[in-house]
Structure formats: C-alpha cells, structure tokens
Amino acid sequence: MEKPTQEGLVYLVDPKWYEEHKKSLPDTLQARRCSSCQKKTSDKGGPAGGWEEQMKKIVECCSKKPTWFSSRTPALESAFRLILANSNRPLPFATLYEQITNLWSSGESPRYIAKEVLVKMLDMDDFYGIRSTSAVRTTP
Ligand SMILES: [Zn+2]
C-alpha cells in the first residue's frame, strides 16, 4: 500500500470542468442559494449573473445562513459548499476534512467519515467538478 498523500492536496471547484461537461456552474450555484436569494432572483426570472457573481453572493449571504449545512448534507455536497464558502480558494484537505467532521458531529444525525473515504470520494467526483491539485502553489 502506498502512503496516503492527502495532506498535501488542496481542493477547488474547476469552472473549466463545467464547460467541458456542458454543465452550467451558474445554475449549479443558483440551486444552492438561500431562500431569500431564490425569491429575489426568481422575481427577475432566472439566474442572476455569472458564477463569479453567484459565488460572491454565496460567500456574503447564503453560506452564512443556518440552512447552508446540516449534519445530513452528503460528503461531496459538504465539500462543494465548503469550497464555495471559501470563495473557491484552494482548500487544503486537512481543513476540508476538519470542517466536514465538525459539521457532521453536531446536529440531529451525527456522522463520521474516515479521511481515506473522503479522499476517495473527492477523487471519484464527477458531479461537482471538484479538482485536487498539489499544495505547492497555494497563496503565500
Ligand atoms: Zn442568499
């Protein structure tokens, strides 16, 4: 068995992945906006702005709402939301894992996930466009 190297990885959502897979990142983000944002944008008819704009609003507004996370949020959905709430800055695996574990350990249905399992799930992701890169080039 190879030694796990997950500690050196950072994760981010790759907008190019969405282009390549003909998926709409703005729509994907739109679906995760809080109810008050949903109400506002549905009045205007459709997603407001590109993904950068959506993400900005998520960071400022939706990710701060109590409905953003629960202990029932699936693993990859949790990872996706954590990365978004971090403005899609590359998130180190250790941080991602710690935050998911914290979120899941509280609430009405506490859960636990092993590091190895989370890494595997992130690697196999073909739904959220989550990419891992080496942490070498993270912001100083
Ligand atoms: Zn909102």
What is this structure's SSE topology?
Blueprint: E1 9-13, H1 15-20, H2 25-30, H3 35-44, H4 51-60, H5 75-85, E2 91-92, H6 93-105, H7 115-124, E3 130-134
Antiparallel strand pairs: 1-2, 1-3
Helix pairs in contact: 5-6
The chain binds zinc ion.
Descriptive labels:
7 helices, 3 strands, globular, 140 residues, 9% strand, binds zinc ion, mainly alpha
Describe this structure in words.
47% of the residues lie in helices and 9% in strands. By secondary structure, the protein is mostly helical. Strands 2-1-3 form a three-stranded antiparallel β-sheet. α5 crosses α6 (93-105). The relative contact order is 0.21. The mean pLDDT is 87. Zinc ion is lined by residues 33-34, 36-37, 57, 61-62.
What is this structure, in a nutshell?
The protein is mostly helical and 140 residues long.
Largest sheet: 3 strands, antiparallel
Beta strands, count: 3
Distance between the termini: 33 Å
Q: What would the average pLDDT be, to the nearest integer? A: 87
Strand content: 5-15%
What is the structural class? mainly alpha
Number of helices: 7
Q: Which spans have pLDDT < 50 for at least 5 consecutive residues?
A: none
Q: Give the CA-based shape.
A: globular
Over the alpha carbons, how many angstroms does the gyration radius reach? 15 Å
Order of helices and strands: EHHHHHEHHE
> Order of strands across the biggest sheet?
2-1-3
Share of helix among residues? Answer: 40-55%
Identify every distinct bound molecule in the structure, by name, code or SMILES: zinc ion
Count of separate structural domains: 1
Oligomer: single chain
